[in-house]
Write a structure and sequence with these properties.
single chain, mainly alpha, Four Helix Bundle (Hemerythrin (Met), subunit A), 2 domains, two-stranded antiparallel ribbon, globular, DNA-binding, WH_DNA-bd_sf
Amino acid sequence: MGSDALGPLRPARTAEQVAHRLATAMALGEYGLGDRLPSERELASLLQVSRESVRAALRTLAGAGLVDIRRGRRGGAFVVAAWGEAGESAVRGALLERWEEFEELFDYRRLIEGLIARTAAERADAGDRAAIAAALAAFDAARTPGEAREHDVRLHRAVACATHNARLVRLHDGLLPEVGLGVSAEPCTWPARDEARPHHHALADAIARGDADGAARVTARYFAITEEALRRLAGRAAPPVPPETAGGDR
């Protein structure tokens, strides 16, 4: 995509951009109240920035009352709030300023993931079907949103691997961090997991039956869940329309 919002962060305003991305991920529910954010080292690797930039971003979030930074062996940055004025401003910076690029990303993802699902249904062998079934069972048995997210990633990667095309697998792997703003994978909360479950079962069933059209349709409906979550969040952060312009010219 070639944008600051969706690719590696550029040096200018890096700490501010990291703070925007983290706050947006928290507002999406990727990290819930009480969750510990990834370590400085992990975030620096995910976002391809320096640990100093990550540290400065975490201090910003702590100053805004969104995270609590704890020292020691069990320390880290823990989520203590997910919204508020700072969160709203962050969502504007991470999403609204580049919304057209996200719309293009959504379209690109639907095209690529639809192709992947269709190809998987046409080519999956017994080993692929077993890997998909195992990932689906683990997703159903997840005890936390974090576990559900982990097994969601595992399931969709198993589908990508069932294409038996390494280039399609790499395209799939590259899309995950873009949709997750570079700090996570698919946004996952308990409601999102419950919404995703029937789609996952339908996808696994379509691939097992070799139903290429059905697999592509289910995939489009599933990935719309993330799109709608981002659209709702963007709408929540959008500045209110002044009363004198809300109804148009009289």
